[in-house]
Amino acid sequence: MEAEVSWSGLPGMSFVATTGSGHMLCMDGAPDGGGNNLAPRPMEVVLAGTGACTAYDVVLILRKSGQDIRNCKVKMSAERAEEAPKVFTRINFHFQVIGRGLKPNLVDRAIKLSHEKYCSASAMLGKTAELVFTHEIIED
Predict the structure, then answer these.
(1) 10 lies in which domain range?
(2) Are 111 and 83 contained in the same domain?
(3) Orientation angle between helical segments 104-113 and 42-64, nearest 10 degrees
């Protein structure tokens, strides 16, 4: 896996990343940190990427389990250390799994498998942060 990050050259702290798959992603800092608030902060991207990583796993596992999943949302809130490096110290993941006739035990299993076996991002963040998982099943 590869990526390249370049400072945009604009006044402030905007950066453009180009991923190994050829996609671009913009990031910026907060105005009080020299940024212009033009894009998400780098740590917001880390948090969002972790949510996408685990949601991907949950959808895939539930599909393979024969479940009629229609959507999967993960709402996250994170706490960070007071001092630099301001690593995540606690992340709450709340899954909203939407579908028809979803079996609660299979939803539980999918979330557990994602975080214990498949999601590389949460495995890394779990080295510095307490990870808390909750979920609800919504009938569609």
Answers:
(1) 3-33
(2) yes
(3) 130
Does 70 share its domain with 93?
yes
Query: Average pLDDT per run of 10 along the chain, which is 140 residues long?
Result: 92 94 96 93 97 98 98 98 97 98 98 97 97 97
What is the reported pTM? 0.93
For the chain, give the DSSP string. --EEEEE--SSS--EEEEETTS-EEEE---GGGT----S--HHHHHHHHHHHHHHHHHHHHHHHTT-EEEEEEEEEEEEE-SSSS--EEEEEEEEEEEEES--HHHHHHHHHHIIIII-HHHHHHTTTSEEEEEEEEEE-
123: left (phi over 0), alpha (psi -120 to 50) or beta: alpha
What Rg, from alpha-carbon coordinates, does the chain have? 17
pLDDT score of 12 = 87
Overall domain count for the chain: 2
Q: Say which CATH number the domain at 129 has.
A: 3.30.300.20
Are 29 and 49 members of one domain? no
